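User: Fold this; tokens only.

Assistant: Input:
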Amino acid sequence: MAKESKAPVIEGAQDVKKITFRSVFYIVAPFLSIILLVVLWFLASASNGSLVPSPLKVWDRFVELAFTKFSAKVSLFGHIWASLQRVLIALGISVVTGITFGVMVGWSKSFRAIFGTLFELLRPIPPIAWLSLSVMWFGIGEFPKVFIVFIGTFTPLVINSYTGIRLVDPLLLDVGRMFNAKNNQLLMEIAVPSALPAIFAGFRNATSSGWMVVLAAEMIVAKTGLGFLIYRGMDYFDVPQILVGMITIGIVGALLAVITNYLERWICPWNVKLEQE
């Protein structure tokens, strides 16, 4: 009996070791990839330091930009806030208008017949293509940049909201009709909550799209922002400044992705549980 009882214990211990190794690997792997990138960066800078400055030079430039008001009397953090402010304003407007428009296109056949074709005609036009017109219409102030970001964030919100409404289970709507629910109740109490995961996926796409669009817009018409920081570095052949801007863009973009993931867990906790299962 004693010999037979040892086998399950050994198998269980092996399973625990496998789980522990996997968990440790998943924690360590991201840091290993970053270390590998830094090592390759050092090797590249050793071969051509003028075009690929070393991480130490980039770090020194980062410290200098972070604590010195250089361009438009704004530090690095001021440029970060300028870009974020444009994205947040445009995203707030897009959330209200884009989700409403997408829900109505998905829910109402009449609304879809009137505005659906118009949206499909304008949707393939990239946001940057509107930049010249926006400058001609509104000048070179803040509004043109917010307008371009709004276009970039509006489209994914509309598409995902429309898709989420169209994919609502008809059985749920039939149950609501059995209880004499009105059309507005079917929309607000059944369709929209069911479509929330798809809508939130559109919000994540809109956030990343808005962050990319604002940087492109700032490279053309802006005096502040991370895009302007990179463009100014190109003018003066300041490669460390360009790399500081690029790395900052990546860090802020990653932080935005983390924040949107936490928002999704808070607003749609059931969707997170389903994905884990």
